[in-house]
Amino acid sequence: MRENVIKIKSFEFAVRIVKFYQFLCNEKKEFVLSKQVLRSGTSIGAMVREAEHSESKADFIHKLSIAQKEINETIYWLDLLRATDYISPQQFESIHADAVEIIKLITSIIKSTKKNIKS
Questions:
Q1: Beta-carbon contacts of residue 100 (< 8 Å; ≥ 6 apart)
Q2: Computed from CA positions of residues 46, 47, 53, 55, in that sequence, does the dihedral angle turn out positive or negative?
Q3: CB atoms within 10 A of CB 6
Q4: Helices (H), the chain
Q5: Is residue 81 within 8 Å of residue 33, measured between CB atoms?
Q6: Is 0.85 surpassed by the pTM of this model?
């Protein structure tokens, strides 16, 4: 059985986001932006899991498109947390790199699936 890279990476990212949320709340006493990044950052993996059992190729694309929107929103919150000095440049770069990798993977899967449908 093939390894599902996006499933693994989105779950690992969600775990990282939960720990990031705990850090923001406990160390930085930030409760509003952290809740936003928690919500969007953990929903990516949930949508990937939903896509895994989609009813059709169109449903699969739709669910992954929602995951794509959620990772894009997460990147926004990360940018905002960096711009407002809640996180250091090093913290930002590390988690941002993971987010960019995930959005690239999801985008690639969506494009491949659409291409396969047309073939």
A1: 75
A2: positive
A3: 19
A4: 5-26, 33-52, 57-83, 89-118
A5: yes
A6: yes
Structure token pair of residue 30: 């930030």
> Rounded mean pLDDT of 40-61?
97
Which phi and psi angles does 53 have, rounded to 5°?
A: -120, 35
* Percent of the chain scoring above 70 in pLDDT: 99
CB 44 within 8 A of CB 13: yes
Q: Among all chains, which residue has been given the structure tokens 């919500």?
A: 39
CA angle 67, 27, 95 (to 5 degrees): 35
Going from the C-alpha of 98 to that of each of 35, 47, 67, 76, 117, the distances in angstroms are 19, 17, 14, 14, 29
Looking up tokens 């720990």, which residue turns up?
19
Q: Other CB atoms closer than 10 Å to residue 50's CB: what's the count?
A: 17
